[in-house]
Amino acid sequence: MIIGITGISGSGKSTVSEKICKTLNAKLIDADKIAKNMQNPKEEYFAKIVEAFGNEILENKKELNRKKLAYIIFKDKSKKDLLDKLTLKYVVPKIKEEAQKAKNVVIDAALLFEMELEKICDVTIGIIASHKICIDRICKRDNIELENAKSRIEAQKSQNFFKINCNYCIINEDENNIENQIENIFENKNLSNENVIHLNTNGIEYLQFRKFLEFSEKIEHCYTLKPLDFKIENKEEVINNYKKICGSLKLDYKNIYRPNQMHTRNVEKIENEKPWIYEEAFENTDGLITNKKDKILSLTFADCICLYFYDPVTNTIRKYTFRLERNI
Question: Are 166 and 237 in a shared domain?
Answer without folding.
Answer: no
